Amino acid sequence: MKRLAAVLGWPISHSRSPAMHDAAFAASGVDAVMLPLAVRPERLDDAVRGLAAIDALGASVTVPHKEAVAGCCAALDPSARAVGAVNCLAFVDGRAIGHNTDAGGFVDGLRAAGHATIARAVVLGGGGAARAVVVGLEQLGADVVVVARRPDAVTWRAARPWAELPALLATAGLVVDATSAALDPAADAALADAVPLGALPADAAVATLIYHRDTALLAAARARGLAALDGRAMLLYQATRAFTLWTGRAAPVDVMATALAASLA
Prior knowledge:
Rossmann fold, 2 domains, 12 strands
């Protein structure tokens, strides 16, 4: 009997999760299909209850539901508690269990790109995406500094002001843009101008969580000869972790990577 997997968001038409997971199901002989479900915030609990009731294989969760969906879960995995958000649901005996595969997915992406050893990292931004990145980097043993335009607004960790960025970058092996600036062309250009990439060591890397297009910051990093990492790897590896969580099988990473690339072409 075909099992249902879902990705929950509002809106949801942008999601690449169905492309990756359907390819993985087919390659692995798992009789399942993933559907994108546009769920209004006020109906989120109903959606989670419905998926649990039909013994769904699992569900991915994207914006704006990652924090709110924790309240719909019967229990939270330590990964979700550490990040303060849920991006993956497993259904066990009619109960929704909240997990977070974003932090581990980010780390898997770094490893795949050959950046598994990072002594110090600077993360730009103080929102939920930044928190997942910080958790992942600390699992690697990195000393992580969070820098935000409004440090006092970051409630989950002490943050440093933007004015300290040049000094902080001087000893960093990685800087991660976890802000939303790249979603707006003007803000994207302004961010690239505001990050003093020249302060970074020559062997440092610059990363962003944006996966659907190049960003001005990554372009500037490449122009300086720095390693530049976009958000595709995190998107891929958070999905491979979800696949394994739901099926108990090793994910067909190459198949999922090919499907993701095709969906973005």
